[in-house]
Design a protein that fits this description.
This protein has 326 residues and is an alpha+beta fold. The chain is built from 11 helices and 14 strands. The protein folds into 2 domains: 135 residues, no CATH class; 181 residues, no CATH class. The strands form 4 sheets. The chain has a 5-stranded mixed barrel with strand order 1-2-3-6-5.
Length: 326
């Protein structure tokens, strides 16, 4: 299944009506058609059966995504014009890179359904669409550089599936990767000095925890790799793991929020990041000990210089699943 190629084979309808589409069935999923509307935007058409007519969902309009239920449409499919009733998920943006992003997400969500989905499965899939795209109106929760650095670590790792599995579900979590006993925090800098901001929690983890700090130099470069290209690399490596693919899409949307349209195209030099990547044991980093932080003071953050600290050789460490994935 390649929805981008399938979409590119469609032509814009000649008839100027918003309920007219050119469409093709998605191979293996005959109840879903991929279509193009009169403005050249991608659309998913879900065939409405008696079961689907009773789906307890409301029509909605988001920044890019609209859902309209039980709409009678005129579609042209392989030269044949018919009238049918569909539940429509339409993506309203002419930016090509965002259209491709929608199609990639659509591909992973359609794959999560079987050939004869139940009503509950269809509802769940549509709700996941809503959850992913609703976040595109939110304030970004991380910098583009920060997200790119986390994706770089996943892509550059020996076991991307392992790192993606332990990647934070929400960008607000204290550690970027967390398996319980093992934690990884990614720090990046564009000034080529290993001086990073830390929260007191990151350098004073719970007893029994081991924390690695991944320090990376990054430089914006139009010849580098974008966030979208890193996403594509990772998806190729995890193959058909639909749950991890969905997690990847979800976190990227939630992290970038309303900045997705601009941010997903920004490129950084992959080679500089790879050559500069070093790991540090949290115990070796200068920090403010908790005993010196008054109980009335919280959310303490400070800079710490790692320049004179000897990097940790991960291969020589006693490692669990997360650290072995590096």
């Amino acid at each position: 299944m390649n929805l981008i190629e399938l979409f590119d084979s469609l032509t814009v309808p000649d008839l100027g009506n918003e309920n007219v589409f050119n469409a093709l069935p998605i191979p293996g999923y005959q109840f879903v058609r991929l279509a193009i509307d009169i403005e050249g935007n991608p659309v998913l058409l879900l065939s409405v059966t008696n079961k689907l007519k009773s789906i307890a969902l409301k029509n909605f309009r988001l920044k890019y995504l609209n859902l309209t239920q039980n709409l009678k449409c005129r579609i042209s499919e392989n030269g044949t014009m018919t009238f049918e009733t569909f539940t429509i998920i339409s993506f309203n943006c002419e930016e090509r890179h965002l259209q491709e992003y929608f199609l990639r997400i659509s591909e992973s969500l359609v794959k999560s359904l079987n050939s004869k989905p139940t009503q509950e499965q269809v509802i769940e899939t549509i709700n996941r669409f809503v959850e992913i795209f609703r976040s595109l109106t939110d304030t970004p929760t991380n910098t583009v550089q920060g997200l790119w650095s986390e994706l770089f670590l996943i892509d550059n790792s020996r076991q991307p599936i392992t790192l993606l599995d332990y990647w934070h579900n929400t960008p607000e979590e204290k550690f970027d990767f967390n398996s319980g006993e093992e934690k990884i925090e990614v720090k990046s800098t564009s000034n080529f000095e290993r001086i990073h901001y830390f929260s007191s929690t990151q350098l004073t983890p719970p007893a029994g925890s081991n924390v690695l700090i991944a320090s990376i130099f990054v430089r914006q470069d139009n010849r580098g790799l974008s966030i979208q290209q890193l996403i594509d690399n990772i998806k190729n490596k995890i193959q058909d793991d639909t749950s991890l693919t969905e997690k990847l899409n979800n976190i990227v949307c939630r992290t970038l929020g309303s900045s997705l349209e601009q941010s997903i195209k920004i490129k950084f030099d992959y080679n500089i990041a790879k050559e500069s990547l070093q790991y540090f044991n949290y115990r070796d980093i200068c920090k403010i000990e908790e005993v010196h932080i008054p109980s009335e003071v919280s959310d303490v953050k400070y800079k710490s210089d790692l320049t004179s600290i000897t990097p940790t050789n991960v291969g020589n460490m006693s490692r669990g699943n997360l650290f072995r994935g590096l």
